[in-house]
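tl;dr need the bound structure. longer version: we got a ligand (zinc ion) that a collaborator sent over and nobodys looked at where it sits. i said id run it. heres the input, straight from their email, havent touched it
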Amino acid sequence: MPRDSQNPLNAAPPPGARSRRPRDPRSGSARAAPPSLPPRPAAGAAPRARADEAPCAPGPLFPPSLLLSLLVPPPAVLAAMLLPCVRSVAARRLARDVPRACSCWAQGPSPRGYSRGAAGKGLVLGVYSSEKEDGAAQFTSAGDAFDRLVSGKLRALLSLCGPPLKKGKTRIFHGLHQDFPSVVVVGLGKKNAGINEQENWNEGKENIRTAVAVGCRQIQDLEIPCVEIDPCGDAQAAAEGAVLGLHEYNELKQKKKPVVTPQLHGSAESEAWQKGVTYAEGQNLARYLMEAPANYITPIKFAEHIEQKLRSFSNVKVHIRPESWITTQEMGAFLSVAKGSAEPPIFLEIHYSGSANTDDSPLVFVGKGVTFDSGGISLKPSSGMDAMRADMGGAATVCSAIVTAAALHLPLNIIGLAPLCENMPSGKANKPGDVVRAKNGKTIQVDNTDAEGRLLLADALCYAHNFNARAIVNAATLTGAMDVALGSAATGVFTNSSWLWTHLYEASILTGDRVWRMPLFEHYTKQVTDCPLADVSNIGKYSRAGGACTAAAFLKEFVTASHWAHLDIAGVMSNKDEVPYLRKGMAGRPTRTLVEFAARLSKDSHNAK
Ligand code: BES
Ligand code: ZN
Ligand code: ZN
């Protein structure tokens, strides 16, 4: 995979970055160090499991004709008789012939002259569902070319080994070609799949993402460190499938999955491939931040991580605002949540100037950054509470989208705002019935301390109005009710602007990370403004009814801009198995949709609001 050293999504942290002691935003002095990672192996010791250090087996490389003959009945008996001699022939050939073509060769040969990793790469090839009666495989152009290279043996083996491949299903063939000891063929579904009007996404792209992710994981199971990917007619989607499909949060485990590096097979479409890698690495950054334990990603650690990712860009400025700054800004609602925790709050502010004219009105992103939401005095049940380490998903996705926009050099200005704090119960915490004052002077009755996200966002949205924004878009894991309404199918979008909605919606069709429009009716506004002690209550008066809509109506009380959208991402926060190209865990959704949306905005005429 071509790695762009300018791309901070790829860049390793600078030496000492991990060990730098955070400033105490309250006092400016160094604070106690956060928990450290498990002890690292001593220099020279293998730090992580590498596939190319697997026990040095000769690998299954033997002449294709012999392989075919093994598949002819009676295979079991024949194979048992022939395999040992085949293996030793293969081993000798391997030692003699194998070129060091693989750029993933990192460790050099093993003492015996070769290792399984050095023997070659994996190859993932797509195959469409057959439209013909005879069920003959319909390869992609890369599949066709490879089949010709091995004299038609791939096609022959595919038809031998079972029924036509269904979408997302795989077959693995070993020993077909010396450069690719293992070839995974994966079903892509219908050849001409495109936009599916019912599903609101591009089915062809989704099929490619899924197929490539499944294929790459098969290669990872085989502990092959390098895999070439068939672009399947859409190299961006293929790269996204590979990079998203292989991602896993491994940071704190001593035993890690082997690292697999995906590369584009062939030289065409390399720009689209790189774009897909960048989009996917952006989402993986958000997944990383969301998955990490709350004692590792505190407000200051979050801010420093993002600052480090943006350090190499001369057109990006990052301000890590301490509590004293938040106080001078009179962000009373945000501070009321933060004061319940021993961990100091941070207001992270990012300015990306990608437009040729630095004065062009920016797109302003705002993200809820609750690094842990216990519920506060309105304490959440303990079961499942650990998932609330991802309650900074809004901040993670918008900041990752800006890192990605910078890596892509998108020609527009973007400002990112992330109020970061913990929501904890303590003697200093908000109590139900307390009244606090937001930056715009409105008073808020805190009827439930677990509805804390809207308090942070109220102040951040007021602040967002300082920048003459083209549009203000906030993302927040705001309500369990959003999850009840749509589950993980789509992000709920509440917006006062059809122009903004159209851009978000069209972006999401391409990315497959969908959005669905939700109502901002006056009906819901009445339910939060009918409040005994203050201008607005932080919960709707009919308890849980329409919970996602009353939360959005609350936020609207702090917005005067004509192009504002609130994205409730609580339902898409994590993945079990619904999105097949994401593993189980925090999903980082909808980072790619935000990036695609920003890319579209950068092409839209500046006055078209
Ligand atoms: N962070 C939660 C919402 C959430 C729930 C996100 C599940 C992701 C998954 C939010 O702060 C919260 O607790 N909201 C309350 C609001 C209620 C008290 C009005 C909720 O949804 O229960
Ligand atoms: Zn909460
Ligand atoms: Zn929350």
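gonna send this back to them w/ a short note. The first strand starts at residue 122 and ends at 128.
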